[in-house]
């Protein structure tokens, strides 16, 4: 079976700065992969290259079997992205925003799809409200709805539960688990919430200074570092207390 | 079909914005109407002082004002629609959707045409109601004049968008100012022959100069100078190709430099 993501020797250099240093990894279809690392580790740059927003200095990326250098639009139609750091037009209502992206992604029966997402993500009371007037948590749920509008086969999520209260965060995580299980969607999740990564991800990539410094299942990493939770593993790596096995 | 849907998707985003923002709608009509008030009364004053010759001059002046607004509104409409995406921090979502760059440009052009009609139509009606100047007296050739001026506005806007991609939102002031800088060479209110000889090649390289030479001839003598129109069309094609090349290069450069990740800064 084709991997959902296959990155080989992926490198990004900005003048003297090496943001991503020859990383290689694969994401099997249906897996939920965690991309972890401190600020400046290269996570955002890696995600931007996976989406074709950034051209790598070297290396290749295949997404859902499409070479992102030559065939990125075919891949983009089958994937989606959500980040609290990229906004939706504030004056448009939630429904209008979802309609815009429904058209951009060629979704059939847009209104039906919006109704499904509104029911599943508890957005019914928000559909007619301007996106700019929502709370941070509501915006995150709307951004998630936008990212699911085209029933993506690959979902790139940057901090999907940032600014959510524990109850809503748990609802979103449960929903993501169910969505991935039901649809076979592959999810690449960049997060600083270690409990979330431990719960959702079958495989974790640890990044530091542009490199993948360790990888494995959460259980493997906990065993390898002799720790009880991923946060301590993260700190071990960030503070150079242990060498990993990239 | 998919392209048409994606283009409509981006147009819908802007149409929904105007539906919810009356200051934006007001802004579309404000400046062309104000211009028509100022230049309309100025023309009326000139016509009252000079007589029949003054009436022709007044008509030429009003025709120039109205048609130049077509170019101005087209250029601003396209560039500002692009800037709306930057201001709303939405470009990241747009550029990772399946929307092709040419579809983005097509949607911006369509929005520019809608904005131009909404902006200029009240000024045309004002000229007709207040000053008895009917731009449509030019006849069907008016459509060709307008299309050429719109096309000029679009390739200039594409150049501005390319600079924004290259230099970020710091270049956004050009969206308002660039066409005003071209006005002296566009022969809007006077013939190219009035310009110093060394400036005339610059004017003649602009489609607008040929359109306005043609407009003056049509209003003055009723004759259509097809040579001017042919020059305008040829120049628009050449400049559009150059602007498209610049846009393609700058878009790729932005994907290399990472400018698309931080274009609002």
Describe this entry's structure for a reader.
The complex is a heterodimer of chains A (246) and B (265). With 246 residues, chain A is α/β, with parallel strands linked by helices. Chain A has two domains: 1-78 and 153-246, Rossmann fold (3-Layer(aba) Sandwich), CATH 3.40.50.300; 87-151, no CATH class. In chain A, 37% of the residues lie in helices and 25% in strands. Chain A has nine helices and ten strands. In chain A, helix 6 (166-183) links the parallel strand 7 and strand 8 (186-190). By secondary structure, chain B is an all-alpha fold. Chain B has one domain (2-261). Chain B has helices at residues 2-19, 22-50, 52-87, 91-95, 101-131, 141-167, 174-182, 200-204, 207-221, 226-257. Chain A binds chain B through residues 14, 44-45, 48, 51-55, 73, 76-77, 80-81, 83, 86-93, 96, 99-106, 130, 146, and chain B through 2, 5-6, 8-10, 12-13, 16-17, 20-21, 84, 88-90, 92-100, 252, 255-258, 260-261.
Tell the overall outline of chain A. globular
β-strand percent of chain B reads under 5%
CATH fold-level label of the largest domain in chain A: Rossmann fold
Ends distance of chain A: 24 Å
Total strand segments of chain B: 0
Largest sheet of chain A: 6 strands, mixed
Q: End-to-end distance of chain B, in Å?
A: 35 Å
Shape of chain B: globular
Number of domains of chain A: 2
* Assigned CATH superfamily of the largest domain in chain A: P-loop containing nucleotide triphosphate hydrolases
Q: Please, what is the average pLDDT of chain A?
A: 91
Instruction: Let me know the number of strands of chain A.
Output: 10
Provide the succession of SSEs of chain B: HHHHHHHHHH
């Amino acid at each position: 079976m084709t991997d959902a993501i296959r990155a080989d020797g992926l490198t990004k250099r900005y003048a003297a700065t090496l943001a991503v240093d020859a990383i290689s990894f694969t994401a099997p279809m249906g897996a939920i992969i965690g991309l972890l690392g401190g600020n400046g580790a290269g996570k955002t740059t890696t995600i931007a290259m996976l989406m074709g927003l950034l051209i790598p200095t070297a290396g290749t990326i295949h997404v859902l079997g499409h070479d992102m250098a030559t065939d990125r639009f075919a891949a983009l139609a089958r994937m989606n992205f959500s980040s609290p750091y990229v906004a939706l037009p504030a004056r448009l209502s939630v429904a209008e925003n979802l309609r815009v992206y429904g058209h951009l992604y060629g979704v059939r029966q847009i209104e039906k799809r919006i109704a499904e997402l509104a029911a599943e993500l508890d957005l019914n009371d928000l559909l007619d409200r301007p996106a700019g007037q929502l709370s941070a948590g509501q915006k995150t749920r709307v951004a998630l709805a936008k990212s699911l509008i085209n029933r993506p086969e690959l979902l790139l999520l940057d901090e999907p539960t940032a600014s959510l209260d524990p109850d809503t965060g748990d609802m979103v995580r449960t929903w993501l688990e169910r969505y991935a299980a039901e649809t076979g969607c592959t999810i690449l999740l960049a997060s600083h919430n270690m409990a979330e990564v431990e719960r959702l991800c079958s495989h974790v990539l640890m990044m530091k200074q542009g490199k993948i410094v360790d990888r494995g299942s959460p259980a493997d990493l906990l065993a390898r570092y002799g720790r009880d939770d991923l946060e301590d593993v993260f700190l071990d790596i960030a503070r150079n207390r242990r060498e990993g096995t990239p | 079909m998919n392209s048409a849907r994606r283009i409509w998707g981006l147009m819908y985003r802007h149409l929904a914005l105007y539906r919810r923002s009356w200051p934006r709608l007001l802004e579309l009509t404000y400046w062309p109407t104000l211009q028509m008030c100022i230049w309309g009364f100025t023309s009326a004053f000139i016509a009252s002082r000079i007589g029949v010759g003054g009436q022709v001059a007044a008509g030429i002046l009003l025709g120039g004002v109205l048609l130049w607004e077509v170019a101005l509104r087209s250029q601003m409409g396209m560039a500002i629609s692009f800037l709306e995406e930057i201001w709303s921090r939405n470009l990241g979502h747009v550029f990772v959707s399946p929307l092709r760059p040419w579809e983005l440009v097509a949607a911006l052009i369509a929005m520019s045409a809608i904005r131009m009609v909404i902006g200029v139509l009240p000024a045309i009606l004002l000229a007709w109601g207040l000053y008895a100047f009917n731009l449509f007296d030019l006849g069907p050739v008016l459509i060709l004049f307008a299309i050429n001026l719109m096309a000029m506005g679009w390739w200039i806007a594409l150049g501005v968008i390319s600079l924004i991609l290259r230099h970020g939102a710091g270049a956004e002031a050009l969206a308002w100012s660039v066409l005003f800088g071209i006005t002296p060479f566009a022969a809007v209110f006077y013939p190219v022959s009035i310009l110093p000889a060394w400036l005339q090649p610059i004017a003649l390289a602009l489609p607008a100069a040929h359109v306005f030479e043609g407009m003056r001839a049509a209003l003055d003598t009723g004759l259509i100078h097809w040579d001017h129109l042919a020059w305008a069309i040829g120049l628009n094609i050449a400049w559009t190709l150059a602007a498209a090349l610049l846009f393609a290069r700058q878009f790729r450069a932005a994907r290399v430099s990472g400018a698309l990740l931080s274009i609002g800064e």
